[in-house]
TrEMBL record:
Keywords: DNA-binding, Transcription, Transcription regulation. Residues 198-296 form the HTH araC/xylS-type domain. SUPFAM superfamilies: Homeodomain-like. InterPro entries: AraC_XylS_family_regulators, Homeodomain-like_sf, HTH_AraC, HTH_AraC-typ_CS. It comes from the Bacteria. It holds the Pfam family HTH_18. PANTHER family: ARAC SUBFAMILY, HTH-TYPE TRANSCRIPTIONAL ACTIVATOR RHAS-RELATED. GO terms for molecular function: DNA-binding transcription factor activity; sequence-specific DNA binding. The keyword DNA-binding applies. SMART domains: HTH_ARAC. This is Transcriptional regulator, AraC family.
């Protein structure tokens, strides 16, 4: 079953406000667990009703003077470049931006937070709450947001798989540090880990030409995405998205050696969105380009 893309229509709609410039969004990228937008925001004042999903606002420059309120908290201060604003799902909020600011907005689906909470906490995950925060700096969270921002700016639909995996890491980080619950050490699954990984690999192999994400693979093996990510890495030593990329590259190597197909066609045969994406991943894994690999093999 194809999972519904997370679109701008499920957000606060801030990206569509008058006075927002240079917008780019993940609308066309097929991301299902997060939505992101990058933009230049001119000074404004606004009130926004609650949406279900968690919002993170990353300040890409600054300082910017921000005044506002959310939940039971009020604030007014200058936030430097790199600041991050956590706005919980289910909460109304008000913002008064005093000067122009470049931002990246990231929405994380509530069901991802609840799914991860079910794996790393005890109690009802539906009751978990993420507290509102406005940080001058949060290094670990910024390190998680940086690859997401790069994927957004590249505009490459092939990043959807990695975004699924990244959403789990962001959810776990928010739960561990900023939620109303305590993370506990959960027992390791001791049965069926290898067979689950084998079934996941078979699904990847059968769909190597398709744009598949973590959610589709997890559904095929009867696990949640967070369960699959943990079990797969424990069994195979790498995350599912990296394993799939390596599988695609291996298939490309076979086609480069055994066929005269143009490299652009090989890219599509192996599930890459275009030749440049294949070339980038191939060089990263093999230290050379597909064309050079074919030449060297045949020389």
């Amino acid at each position: 079953m194809r999972i519904r893309t997370f679109g701008a229509d499920e957000t606060h709609g801030m990206v569509f406000r008058p006075g927002v410039e240079g917008q780019m969004t993940s609308n066309a990228l097929g991301w299902t667990t997060m939505f992101a937008s990058a933009q230049r925001e001119l000074p404004y004042e606004g009130a926004f009703p609650a949406v279900r999903d968690q919002l993170l606002v990353w300040h890409r420059d600054g300082p910017a003077v921000i005044e506002g309120e959310g939940g039971d908290k009020r604030f007014c201060r200058a936030v430097p470049a790199g600041g991050i604003h956590l706005i919980p799902g289910g909460a109304d909020f008000k913002i008064n931006l005093r000067n122009a600011l470049s931002t990246t907005h990231v929405y994380l689906r509530r069901n991802v937070i609840e799914e991860v909470a079910a794996e790393i906490t005890r109690g009802d995950p539906a009751l978990i709450e993420i507290s509102p925060h406005l940080f001058d700096s949060e290094t670990m969270l910024a390190n998680l947001l940086h690859p997401l921002d790069c994927a957004l700016r590249q505009g490459n639909a092939a990043t959807a798989f990695a975004i699924d995996y990244l959403s789990l890491s962001i959810a776990a980080h928010l739960i561990r540090l900023y939620s109303n619950t305590t993370v506990v050490r959960m027992p390791r699954e001791r049965s069926a880990r290898t067979s689950t990984a084998d079934r996941a690999i078979e699904f990847m192999r059968a769909n190597i030409q398709e744009s598949i994400g973590l959610a589709e693979i997890a559904e095929a093996v009867g696990l949640s995405p967070s369960q699959l990510a943990r079990v797969f890495k424990s069994s195979c030593g790498s995350p599912p998205h990296r394993f799939l990329i390596n599988m695609r590259i291996g298939h490309a190597q076979c086609l480069l050696r055994s066929s005269d197909l143009p490299i652009a066609e090989i890219a599509l045969e192996c599930g890459f969105s275009h030749q440049e994406h294949l070339t980038h991943q191939f060089r990263r894994a093999c230290g050379t380009t597909p064309a050079a690999y074919r030449r060297d093999y045949r020389s």
